[in-house]
Amino acid sequence: MAKDFNSPKIVDGYDEHIRKLIPGYEVIHQQVDAILQSVLKPNSHILIVGCGTGYELEYLLKRHPNWKFTAVDPSLTMLQKAQEQVELLGKSSQVTFVHGETSALPLENCFDAALSILVAHFIADDIKPAFFKDIYNRLKENAVLLTYDLMTCINPQQLQALRYLCLAQGLTEEQCQKMLERMAQDFFSLTTEGYIKLLQKSSFESVQSYAQVLTYQGLIAKK
C-alpha cells in the first residue's frame, strides 16, 4: 500500500526514515546547492516542487539569504510541517507556500530554477508529461531543472545492493522488504533513457546526469 503523506504519523517520522531509505540523502542536497550556486544569481527565485517537510528549503535558506522560494506540495500536512520549519528559522519572508500541484501556480515565466527531488517517481506515467510541462512553462528562459528519482531497475543485482546499503544505514530487514515491495508496486519509475526522453519531449534541452547511487539518479536540464 502506498504511503499516505497526509498522515501526521508518517510526516512526523519522515525526516528520520528517509535518511535510512535514500542512500546519500544529505549529499544529494549538497550537490543540488553547489549546482544552483554555479548557475544562479544572488537574487534568484526557485520553485520547489513537492517540498515535503522542508529539508531542502531549510538547507538552502540557511545558505542563501537573498534567494526567494515558492514551495509547492499536494499534501497539506507536509506543507504545514515545512512552513513550521521555515518559521522556526525566521525565514518566512523568503518563501511562498502553495498547497496543490504546480498547475495551481500562475502561468508566468518567473522562476530561475526548479527542483523536483524524489517526486516524479510518485507521479503516474500518464500524468508525467503534464507534470514536467507545467514546470517548464513557469521557468524563465535558460533556467534549469534539477531532478532526483528512483529509476527502473534493469539489473536485479542493483536491488540487492540497495537492500544491503539501506541495512547499513539503519533500516531493519522488515523495512527493507517493505521498501522493495513498494518499489515494485507503488512507484512509477522510468529507465534513465525513458526519463531523458520525457524531459526532452517536455521541451527541456541539454539533459545530463549529475549524480547516481545505484537505482537513484539525478538529472539536470535547461529551458
Automatic annotation (TrEMBL):
Cited InterPro entries: Methyltransf_25 (IPR041698), SAM-dependent_MTases_sf (IPR029063)
Signal sequence segment: none
Domain Methyltransferase: 46-141
Record CDD domains: AdoMet_MTases
Short name of one Pfam family: Methyltransf_25
Keywords: Transferase
Name under which the protein is recorded: Methyltransferase domain-containing protein
Provenance organism: Acinetobacter calcoaceticus DSM 30006 = CIP 81.8
